[in-house]
Amino acid sequence: MGILRLTVDLAAQRLTVWDGAHASRHYPVSTAANGPGEIEGSGCTPRGRHRIRAKIGAGEPAGAVFRARRVCAEVPLYTPEAAARFPGRDWITSRILWLSGLEVGRNRLGCVDSMRRYIYIHGTPHLDTLGRPASHGCVRMRDADVIELFDLIPVGTEVELHE
């Protein structure tokens, strides 16, 4: 494999893994219900060039629940019973790929900083939302897909989010 990079097409709700000029994998995703945007507190998915700043969750089981980037003590694994106990929770499951913006003034520093906005590519149990905008700003993926992606790419991988 060559140098890998990712693109997230916000209009198509699809993440693509690129191996050089060759698209090697495609995954359905769910980005922000509020659409694209960079401002802190907007609930929008930021656009532009990013890098994977950190990979969180190596070795955790599929469905592991994260709060503040750690496995949740009260609900370590997503279940329908947990969902009933915590209705409306924005579940972050299985793996986290934390994004850091590369474009000062667009998605880095100030009120547009993707890393300080805690923008992730992460697992979700809400499979019915994949393929349409429904997140609070992050890029949601099926647990099996985000685990596969997590194992495939290194920290530092470039990610382009575009319309």
UniProtKB/TrEMBL annotation:
**Signal peptide from the UniProt entry:** none
* Pathway named in the protein's UniProt entry: Cell wall biogenesis; peptidoglycan biosynthesis
* GO term, biological process aspect, one: peptidoglycan-protein cross-linking
User: Which GO terms label this protein's molecular function in UniProt?
Assistant: glycosyltransferase activity; peptidoglycan L,D-transpeptidase activity
Cellular-component GO terms for this entry: extracellular region
Under the heading InterPro entries, the entry gives: LD-transpeptidase, LD_TPept_cat_dom, Transpep_catalytic_dom
User: What are the L,D-TPase catalytic domain coordinates in residue numbering?
Assistant: 4-162
CDD domains for this protein: YkuD_like (cd16913)
* Keywords associated with the record: Cell shape, Cell wall biogenesis/degradation, Glycosyltransferase, Hydrolase, Peptidoglycan synthesis, Transferase
Which residues does the entry assign to the active site, renumbered to this chain? H122, C138
Question: What family classification does the UniProt entry report for this protein?
Answer: Belongs to the YkuD family.
PANTHER family in UniProt: L,D-TRANSPEPTIDASE, L,D-TRANSPEPTIDASE ERFK_SRFK-RELATED
Q: What is this protein called?
A: L,D-transpeptidase
Species in which this protein is naturally found = Stagnimonas aquatica
